Amino acid sequence: MEKRHEPGRRTVLGAAALGAGAAVLAGAGQANAAGRTEPAGAPAHRPAPAGRPAKLPVPLVVGHRGASGYRPEHTLGSYQLALDMGADVIEAGDLVPTKDGHLILRHEPDISATSDVAQHPEFAGRRTTKTIDGKKITGWFTEDFTLAEIKTLRAKERIPDVRQHNTLYDGVWPILTFEEALQWAEKKGRERGRPVWLHIETKHPTYFRKLGLGLEERLAHLLRRYGRHTAHAPNFLQSFEPSSLSRLGELGVKCPKVVLLDEPSVRPWDFVESGDPRTTADLLKPAGLKWIAGFAQGIGPWLPQVIAQDAKGKLGEPTALVRDAHAAGLVVHPYTVRNENSFLPLDFQVGKDPAAYGNSLAYFKALFATGIDGLFSDNPDTALVAAEEFRRH
Questions:
Q1: Residue 340 neighbours by CB under 8 Å, 6+ apart
Q2: How sure is the predictor about 21, in pLDDT bands with cuts at 50, 70 and 90?
Q3: Residue 19 pLDDT > 80
Q4: Alpha-carbon Rg of the chain, whole angstroms?
Q5: Which residues form the GP-PDE domain (predicted)?
Q6: Which of 59, 211, 212, 326 has the fewest CB atoms within 10 Å, i.e. is most exposed?
Q7: How far is CA 68 from CA 114, 174, 332, in A?
Q8: DSSP β-bridge partners for residue 130
Q9: Is residue 4 situated within a structural domain?
Q10: What is the pLDDT of residues 144-194, one digit of tens each?
Q11: How far apart are the first and last CA of the chain?
Q12: What is the domain extent for residue 111?
């Protein structure tokens, strides 16, 4: 996932992206030397976090929107490639609704950058400006289209300036419904003889609920239809809004839930709407993690919340977050490692081309050494090389 609020924003981990947040993260508490290299399953006397399924390897690799480093995100091509590469879990998330209430898979409700909608003159009049979670956005929005209309569109690469090679596949695949993704996962599970694990995100749930398009009821209905609502179902549910996960629990969805964590100064939007003064920084503290453990089984932190970075974007020391989360019984699945220089800490960039690959393998290894239970990557093949080496040791 990207940052929740800004559809076009790339997570560039340099000084401009970190700003004052770097100081907050660095001050959150540094792990001691033992904490830096603690294997995910140690120490032996500590039980494994409740959200860590026994059938998945540690650390696990989540294909972020599939293998989105190589194919346009949230397409069958991206999902299948991630599965073929060996990703342990596929992120078939970023659920947004259509006007007639169908859940589809897009990075954001604004589909300007992820579809060819701008090339459809019949939809020119649908372009508009909306305020989503306090931010004004101009574009075309899924809630203004019926599913039949969405199905006339094709997916395209969201960040062509960085991933020009992915534009080769622009227009190849249609926009998927969540049910189609579930059907694909069930089919591939039968062919493989083992389930396809999914990571599923509710996107802007408070915004959509106010439009009468609540995500949770629709999601719970589909999960029950495919038998993916139980505690042992092969999926994780995730959201930047804690109340969305609580609501899913109240609807009888028992599979592991993961609270996504934004930058430290940000308040979850459901907190803004309800008047809760807490920020992400509060949720990162032991008391906040204990509160999360009351209704969820994991957290999905931003990468610098696991290993701090300085104002220039250089990697610092691991924070206490992994240790504290494990102490609260929570798994830790940070987001999102990408191979390109523009997404890597300054120390791991190679050359001056922001679209060229840096030394992402070294960054993966540093993250795995903190004891995280898994991570999201646009490049699951690279992540798996690092994960398999870590598992061997």
A1: 162, 163, 354, 355, 356, 357, 358
A2: very low
A3: no
A4: 20
A5: 59-387
A6: 212
A7: 12, 15, 22
A8: 137
A9: no
A10: 999 999 999 999 999 999 999 999 999 999 999 999 999 999 999 999 999
A11: 29
A12: 15-392
Mean pLDDT of 106-124: 98
Domain assignment of residue 67, yes or no: yes
Comparing CA positions, the residue from 121, 91, 119 lying closest to residue 106 is: 91
What is the dihedral angle through the alpha carbons of 186, 187, 190, 195, rounded to the nearest 10 degrees? -40
Indicate the pTM of the whole model: 0.89
DSSP bridge partners of 257: 237
Q: Which of 45-54, 213-222, 254-263 has the lowest mean pLDDT?
A: 45-54
Task: Give the CATH number of the domain where residue 110 resides.
Answer: 3.20.20.190
Look at the chain and count its residues: 393
The verdict on residue 8 lying in a domain is no
- Does some domain include residue 151? yes
Question: pLDDT tens, 214-231?
Answer: 999 999 999 999 999 999
List, for residues 303-319, the tens digit of each pLDDT value.
999 999 999 999 999 99
Distance in angstroms (rounded) separating the CA atoms of residues 377 and 337: 5
Structure tokens at 229: 């609502």
Pairing of strands 307-309, 315-318: antiparallel
